[in-house]
Amino acid sequence: MFDNLSDKLDKAFHVLKGHGQITEVNVAETLKEVRRALVDADVNYKIAKDFTNTVKKKALGQDVLTSLKPGEMMVKLVKDELTELMGGDAEGLNLSGQPSVILMSGLQGSGKTTFSGKLANYLKNKKTKKPLLVACDVYRPAAIDQLHVVGEQIGVEVFSDKENKDPVDISEKAIAYAKENGFNAVIIDTAGRLAVDQAMMTEISNIHAAIKPEETLFVVDSMTGQDAVNTAKAFNDVLNFDGVILTKLDGDTRGGAAISIKSVVNKPIKFIGTGEKMEAIDVFYPSRMADRILGMGDVVSLVERAQEQYDEKEARKLQKKIAKNQFGFDDFLNQIQQVKKMGNMKDLMGMIPGAGKMMKNMDIDDDAFKHIEAIIHSMTPEERQKPSVINASRKRRIGKGSGTSVTEVNQLLKQFDQMGKMMKMMQGGGGKKMMQMMKGMK
After folding, report:
1. Which CATH superfamily, name and number, covers 302-440?
2. What is the CATH number of domain 3-85?
3. Residues 186/187/191/193 CA torsion (nearest 10 deg)
């Protein structure tokens, strides 16, 4: 996400290195590169030009703070303006209705149906709501089946009627059903088309007028770049929607839609989709996204994801095991499962300041832990509990059983031993020794 843009912006700020003062000449040079980077990322040229002009006005005449270098000052100015351009503050959903009705709109293939499921899962697990999914794509039977599969996957009921070809009637009946059966959130998945057409706009407009939803959300594939922004404008002219959902931000996207969509339709981006799993949904925080675009990471989101998986009772148990030197491979396996629930590894690494730059040429597979899990699963319960009993013949057996080599088994055992020592040091406050040990670990 935004890798190319981050690299180009980083190079642009290098222009200012070595200058003791921000001058009109070096600012112009830097901002010319920033504008080029934004246009390359599929940001509309006028938006990119207005953006750099605003930054230029703020940069010129400002004294560089004694604690900052000119490059750092420019990064801060660009970060603040990027945050404003993308909406300033995060905006939540209006869930005041009884039930709260959310209407999903967008083109076919934008990820509407999948995201409807993600949103239902989010409301159920994060907002303690009882959501009902409603299948209103009356043209594609596969779309109704898909929503049922998604609903089953997340444990959310789906309301549908394959015999009924009137999406307005289905929507109204679904809301009545929700009221009768204690559902407090209704997510209506509507039909899409391959392109914006009058029939589609009339249909979605009729549904909107009939049910008067608390939230109308426009779902758009961020990989379509500037087209995404143009489509958003066409939908907004008809629906006057409340917010945008950007899907597929984990793909090979240049990021232009995320940066410029707010300034074109004047509606906030409310959520982003960052993967295929039902948990891969994030509230859109403009400030955090600006940090990530500028290679500063996103520690706040990383901590939030970790806290979601954090179990205080289990953590206390683990602490006692570490203190008694009883931390085994079963405990390690449990930790891996918790990390995997936080998201894909490349996305997580991108949240650590500086790590994204270090790892930009590395391909981190979603199954990064696969061979480690295979090795652990090939161990006996005794070996998992007491790794010290694993001798040469056991290593050969474990390697053969897991489809790995003895070298890989040895490597895991060595790293596991080092990790155990580090955990001990963390409890005992041995910071310096721990840092030295971390340098020696992969």
Report:
1. Signal recognition particle, SRP54 subunit, M-domain (1.10.260.30)
2. 1.20.120.140
3. 150
The CA distance from 284 to 228, in Å, is: 17
- Give the separation between CA 5 and CA 11, rounded to whole angstroms: 10
Q: Is the peptide bond before 70 cis (omega within 30 degrees of 0)?
A: no
Give the pLDDT of residue 66.
38
**pTM > 0.85:** no
Q: Is the pLDDT of residue 345 over 80?
A: no
Alpha helices in 282-390 (DSSP H): 286-293, 299-309, 312-323, 329-341, 345-350, 355-358, 370-377, 381-385
Helices 256-265 and 45-59: angle between axes, nearest 10 degrees: 90
pLDDT tens by residue, 228-267:
778 888 888 888 888 888 887 765 556 677 777 888 888 8
> What's domain 100-294's architecture?
3-Layer(aba) Sandwich (3.40)
411-425 pLDDT, tens digit per residue, is: 888 888 877 776 666
